[in-house]
Amino acid sequence: MRILIIEDSIPLADTLTEALEKEHFIVDVAHDGKSGYEYAASDIYDIIILDLMIPIIDGYELLRRLRRDKHDVSVLILSAKSEIEDKIQGFEAGTDDYMTKPFDMRELIMRIHAIVNRRGGQNIVVYQIGNLYLDMGTCELTNTKTGKKMQIMGKELQLMELFLRNKYQVLEKEQIATKIWGYDSDAEYNKVEVYVSFLRRKLNHLHTNVRIRSVRGVGYILEICDD
Prior knowledge:
Layout: E1 2-6, H1 10-22, E2 26-30, H2 33-40, E3 47-50, H3 59-68, E4 74-79, H4 84-93, E5 97-100, H5 105-118, E6 126-129, E7 132-135, E8 140-143, E9 149-151, H6 154-165, E10 171-172, H7 173-181, H8 189-206, E11 210-215, E12 219-224
Parallel strand pairs: 1-2, 1-3, 3-4, 4-5
Antiparallel strand pairs: 6-7, 7-8, 8-9, 10-12, 11-12
């Protein structure tokens, strides 16, 4: 399951990310309403955890825009605004649930699962190129010709999904760093190179006909090998 956190407090966003990744969720983070909407409008998320008091576009307006533009993603508001009027406004804007700060992480995770159950379970996303198949439900890479499988997690999984969603397209290193580590990340290009090398080893281990090719001075492209 993929979760988007829209929260301007970097320490809280980091705490949420760490806790949710331990539960095997894939987590992305935005720290303002503008970038949060851009992430959310991609329609790749199962749930958005939304703070209301965020810069540029506040949480209420962001949620109204999502619903106006027919984005049916589940939303859980997590806010310090605890008055009943605030909650009513949140539900009128289209949230699925509303929690107030401070909160218990166990309750948050319970509510996330409850939202998924009400929606009839998560939609399992799968990707394929050549004989390589990625099931986001099981987090498994599979060689469809041999049946050989390997599980990947964390940043490797996010990076593999990014390549598969943009197969045959050149991804710039800066673009990859932003998508995987965030706008406010101090991740350097060598971190991208390290994780690309991890994925290359896994593709070689699975003996797939897919490769991540370097495009000199630009970035990388996922493609089927000619040989």
